[in-house]
Amino acid sequence: DTAVSQTPKYLVTQMGNDKSIKCEQNLGHDTMYWYKQDSKKFLKIMFSYNNKELIINETVPNRFSPKSPDKAHLNLHINSLELGDSAVYFCASSQTRVEAFFGQGTRLTVV
Amino acid sequence: DQQVKQNSPSLSVQEGRISILNCDYTNSMFDYFLWYKKYPAEGPTFLISISSIKDKNEDGRFTVFLNKSAKHLSLHIVPSQPGDSAVYFCAASAWGNQFYFGTGTSLTVIP
Prior knowledge:
The structure holds two protein chains of two kinds.
Chain A: E1 4-7, E2 10-13, E3 19-25, E4 31-37, E5 43-50, E6 53-57, E7 64-67, E8 75-78, E9 87-94, E10 101-102, E11 106-110
Parallel strand pairs in A: 2-11
Antiparallel strand pairs in A: 1-3, 3-8, 4-5, 4-9, 5-6, 7-8, 9-10, 9-11
Chain B: E1 4-5, E2 10-14, E3 19-25, E4 32-38, E5 45-51, E6 56-59, E7 62-67, E8 72-77, E9 86-93, E10 99-101, E11 105-110
Parallel strand pairs in B: 2-11
Antiparallel strand pairs in B: 1-3, 3-8, 4-5, 4-9, 6-7, 7-8, 9-10, 9-11
């Protein structure tokens, strides 16, 4: 039973499309995150949600929007996809300021 | 501005020897540090952590050392095993739940 699961694992789409990546955690954690790992392998935080409130929003284009229907889900919506959005996106969750648990990643390729 | 840095992108070590992975940080407010291990096509998994009130934490073959004055931490793996071959990420957090990651060090343990 996967603790943090994200779908799809691979996503290939054309420029200009709108897509979503789903994330669910069954750990009962209060905080969920989205990270982007770019071509330089740098893991950079995009968003985090704590009790359905956005508490961190780094300098991410507003084409990216997190949606949290409940505490166990944090989905990532991306509008008007660009070539530079190609990356691996990781969802994660944590309870306290201890370790975060990560999903397996979604490799997004924009063509 | 990268607050957590891993200056060695790769490291090769003979099986049975010690692996030492290094990490530097710039933010003096960081008070909790973690190491994650990542295999290809998987999400990062938590390995070991250390609070800033300690200078050493040991878990089996893995030991993390923290030098606050130098803003430096290191992960020692001894003895190294082929299964340890992976990318290792250093991460740090301050107040709140945001984790800042380094760019990772790819460790290859040669049988």
